[in-house]
Amino acid sequence: MTGVINYGAGNLGSVMNALARLGLSARFTRGPDELRSGVFDAIIFPGDGHFATAMEALASSGYAEALREWIAADKPFLGICIGLQLLFEWSEEAEGVSGLAVIAGGVKKFPGRKVPQIGWNQTAASSSSRLFKGLKAESFFYYIHSYYAAPRDKSVTAAEAEYYLRYCSAVERGALAAVQFHPEKSGAAGLELLRNWAGV
């Protein structure tokens, strides 16, 4: 069973629809204690929104610590959009607000004036990436974001895209994976990526 973190963010329905199309058993989580109960084999943390607002919701609900424990135990995890950015230590979107800090580095704002980036963008994956296995070397995925992840350790970078500069658009480390784009809105390539992550 896959748990989809429900902390009040939008776009959760499209993630559930994508998982249903793949035949995956999934439901929304009902609280942080469920992450400790053993009811879920894997967790997806989707959503969009402001770094500070999302982090405050995770901290006040107890999800922040439960997610840190889940990731520290190297259990299957997929972050999507803000679910990638909150894995880092800090963000220029919210000075003074700490993220989950499970990946060293921060989140920076694109240097150009035309932000957010909205739409399809080519995504260059690492040849060793399990998420992108079987996909074209530079598949297109759907993005909508004004900030990008900048990991301190470049070895966690699983894919890159370009928008004003070349940036990290996906990370992988053990059972931890996260993407800046929205696989649930990226057609066949997005479904294939979710299938790779789930191992089905």
Model description:
- By secondary structure, the protein is α/β, with parallel strands linked by helices.
- The protein has one domain (2-198): Rossmann fold (3-Layer(aba) Sandwich), CATH 3.40.50.
- The protein is built from six helices and twelve strands.
- It has helices at residues 12-21, 33-37, 51-61, 63-72, 82-85, 187-198; strands spanning 2-4, 26-28, 42-45, 77-80, 90-91, 105-109, 117-125, 138-145, 147-151, 157-163, 165-173, 176-179.
- The strands form two sheets. Strands 2-1-3-4-12-11-10-7-8 form a nine-stranded mixed β-sheet. The chain has a three-stranded mixed β-sheet with strand order 5-6-9, with no helix packed on it.
- The radius of gyration is 15 Å and the shape is globular.
- The mean pLDDT is 95.
Summarize the structure.
Helices cover 26% and strands 32% of the residues.
Layout of strands and helices, then pairs:
Elements: E1 2-4, H1 12-21, E2 26-28, H2 33-37, E3 42-45, H3 51-61, H4 63-72, E4 77-80, H5 82-85, E5 90-91, E6 105-109, E7 117-125, E8 138-145, E9 147-151, E10 157-163, E11 165-173, E12 176-179, H6 187-198
Parallel strand pairs: 1-2, 1-3, 3-4, 4-12, 5-6
Antiparallel strand pairs: 6-9, 7-8, 7-10, 10-11, 11-12
Roughly what fraction of the amino acids lie in strands?
Answer: 25-35%
Global shape = globular
- Give the spatial strand order of the biggest sheet: 2-1-3-4-12-11-10-7-8
Average pLDDT for all residues: 95
- Calculate Rg over CA atoms: 15 Å
Report the span from N to C terminus.
13 Å
CATH class: Alpha Beta
Helix/strand order, N-terminal first: EHEHEHHEHEEEEEEEEH
Summed up, the helix count is 6
Low-confidence stretches: none
Sheet of most strands: 9 strands, mixed
The count of domains is: 1
CATH topology, what is it called? Rossmann fold
CATH architecture: 3-Layer(aba) Sandwich
Helix content: 25-40%
CATH superfamily heading? Class I glutamine amidotransferase (GATase) domain
Number of strands: 12
- Which structural class should the secondary elements be placed in? alpha/beta
